[in-house]
Amino acid sequence: MKIYILSLVSALFVLLCGYLVPWTITPLIIGLTYAIAALGISVMLRAGQVSFGHAMYASVAAYSIAFISRMRPETDVIVLIVCSVVIATLFSALIGIFVVRYRGIFFGMLNLALSMVLFALTTKFYDITGGTDGIRVSRPTVAGIALERSAFEFTLMCIALAGSLLIAWAVQRYFRSGNGQALAAIKTNETRLEYLGISPRHVLWKGYILSGAVVGFSGAILALVQGLVTPDVGTWLRSAEYVYITILGGAAHVSGAFIGAAIFETVKLISSAYFPGFWQAILGLTLILVIFVVPNGVVARS
To answer: In whole angstroms, what is the distance from residue 137 CA to residue 156 CA?
Structure first.
């Protein structure tokens, strides 16, 4: 119960911060997209599998929004988000059939390879994707109402906050369900699962689909707040940042993703402001410090 109250208080604080200090809205939304994506990564980490290519699902959702918005400029923001998440989910289900056959470094590198293929396609097919220039996303209507930029960004922040709370609740419920326990068992003793008549590959596939859907939601919000979709959304560096945040916060509880994202954004913002040529090293030192002090992340237990 305490964690739910703390989550609601944190969400209200973010909402109030965005309302009173409007320039913070964009950084807050981008921070939320990192937290949501890290939540998707934590699902895979629950099974002991680290994906270095999950940003491709954010890219799929972002480009889906760009294509739909270009074909149907009148499409409402909620319809755009739902359609893009469905497409990212279906894409993850298709990719998952192949990658869940592998474990450990092979699982991580295979995801990385597939994300690099998608990155190359979005870069090379200029006539379709706009290449490195990307595709501009026009500001969609909200419930049929065309809003000014400031009102739209505040509404988008409310949608991102509500979505993140709902996803965090659903993922935590999943962790405590039979499927979630079976997913955790893949990390500890996969052979025992098979003795119980449970297919580890099927369990991991379902977890992979959930993970892809969650990361897809983060990509949809990112596309809408930026108003531009470029191949950088799905680059390996962004996948690495998602993994960084997940390790920093810990995968034992969903709150770890949000705490990890808050630490990541704070360290990044302060170090890039005061040490502009040294901020990557400070981020690395922060992770090393966390690994030594709290090896399982800031939130080590559920």
So the answer is: 14
- State the pTM of this model: 0.89
What is the pLDDT tens value at each position of the chain, 302 positions in all? 666 777 778 888 888 888 888 888 898 899 899 999 989 998 998 888 888 888 999 999 999 999 999 998 888 999 999 999 999 999 999 999 999 888 888 998 999 999 999 999 999 888 888 888 889 998 898 888 888 888 999 999 999 999 999 998 999 889 888 888 888 888 888 888 888 888 889 999 999 999 999 999 999 999 999 999 999 988 888 888 899 888 888 877 788 888 888 888 888 888 888 877 777 788 888 878 888 887 777 776 55
Reduce the DSSP state of residue 254 to 3 states and report it. coil
Q: Smallest Cα–Cα separation from 164: which of 3, 8, 271, 2?
A: 8
**Residues 257 and 299: beta-carbon distance below 8 Å:** no
Element (H, E) at 228: strand 228-229
Give the whole-angstrom CA distance, residue 244 versus residue 7.
22
Q: Which amino acid is at 7?
A: S
Residue 173 tokens, joined: 């419920």
Give the pairing of strands 135-136 and 228-229: antiparallel
